[in-house]
Design a protein that fits this description.
Helix content is 0%, strand content 49%.
């Protein structure tokens, strides 16, 4: 991988969703195809409440993922110096401050994904480091490390039921899917071998997206085996990036269109009876999905033409789309977003460029009690 220079791509090592560049003007969000007009929203309600720098002054730092573990508590993960000699970072967020945690010595590369079964049972994975860490309430330990491949996702049901997925954009089976039962790790064959990411409702009900040579697919675990799920062409012409199962009749997939309309952000929704596509006109790399207020979903993204800008979309089951863009003087990117357990605040993670390198950042958005919705008003703004 080429060394990434400041001011060109601060957080490209986090995921396609975070690719930063020079400062850009305020971004108008194009109207989604399913709507007559976009609901432009302001990012001025998102406030940077924590900025941290790790390593040498010229290093780029960033948070790739955030996981809620309590009413006012979450873990933020990422690293420093993508594209060069990098190191992982974990920080415990209490709603006010992000306190760095001590990780096992000798680890390299960003922490790219994480999942939690509880405040004392948190798991984190490094895509290129090929390792999984576990927090037991006292300290972080190395749970497992693979020799080849890369980790694309992790899903935790409890301390004795953990799934790790390892494939690539091209659907490599070099690592594959692994399951931990509390004592040992075993590889899983069949349709699960190219799972990219998964989302569990219970130990007997896990939804996942799998890479395919021509078309990606949806597979589902029933407690015993992984089975294909018919999508009836809903994923045709899409490259999927994330999946979120909110119930067995409410499943979301985020991805990008391919072909002539390549690069457009597309969401696919399962309502318990059929799949529906919500095709936006936004040219952006799809990022992470998260549950939003009022049964909506949130998705992070990076606009293709405005790589110094982060983007968060809110989408309702009826296909109503709202968006907020994140900017800073030199560039910023948003990698992940979650809603606090009390439903009062959104927490977003990513990074901002500085004159020397870059800082890891956490933004907050306080939801109003009357209308906890991203689309409350249409005023321009930018993050501080």
């Amino acid at each position: 991988m080429l060394r990434i220079r400041p001011r060109t791509a601060l957080l490209a090592g986090l995921a396609p969703v975070v690719a930063l560049g020079p400062a850009v003007p305020s971004m108008p969000v194009p109207a989604p195809a399913s709507q007559t007009a976009a609901h432009h929203v302001s990012a001025s309600e998102f406030q940077i409440v924590a900025r941290s720098h790790f390593g040498q002054p010229g290093n780029a730092s960033g948070y790739a993922v955030i996981v809620v573990t309590g009413r006012r508590q979450a873990w933020a993960f990422g690293g420093t110096n993508p594209g060069g000699r990098s190191a992982p970072v974990a920080a415990l967020w209490n709603g006010t401050r992000a306190a760095p945690a001590k990780l096992p010595a000798g680890l390299r590369d960003f922490i790219s994904d994480a999942n939690a079964a509880g405040p004392n049972d948190v798991w984190a994975a490094s895509q290129y480091g090929r390792y999984v860490l576990r927090w037991d309430g006292t300290r972080w330990r190395l749970a497992h490390k693979w020799r080849t491949g890369q980790i694309s996702g992790i899903d935790t049901i409890n301390s004795r039921d953990v799934w790790v997925f390892g494939t690539t954009v091209t659907g490599s089976e070099r690592m594959g899917t692994w399951h931990y039962d509390g004592q040992s790790w075993t590889t899983v064959r069949g349709v699960a071998r190219t799972i990219l990411r998964g989302s569990s409702l219970s130990r007997h009900d896990i939804w996942a997206i799998a890479r395919g040579r021509a078309v990606d697919s949806v597979v589902r675990f029933n407690g015993t085996s992984w089975r294909p799920v018919a999508t009836h062409g809903a994923l045709q012409g899409l490259r999927t990036h994330d999946i979120l199962a909110m119930s067995n009749h409410d499943v979301w997939i985020a991805g990008d269109s391919t072909g002539k309309s390549g690069g457009r952000l597309v969401l696919t929704h399962w309502d318990g009876k059929s799949w529906h596509r919500i095709a936006t006109r936004i040219h952006a790399w799809a990022g992470r999905l998260a549950a939003g207020p009022h049964g909506s979903v949130l998705v992070t993204a990076t606009p293709l033409s405005l790589v110094g800008t982060g983007l968060v979309l809110q989408v309702s089951g009826r296909g109503k789309v709202s968006a907020a863009s994140f900017q800073s003087p030199l560039g910023s990117g948003v990698s992940d977003i979650v809603m606090s357990r009390n439903g009062l605040t959104l927490w977003a993670t990513g990074g901002v460029l500085t004159s020397q390198g870059g800082d890891a950042a956490i933004w907050t958005f306080r939801l109003s009690s009357a209308a906890r919705d991203l689309e409350r008003r249409e005023t321009p703004g930018s993050t501080p």
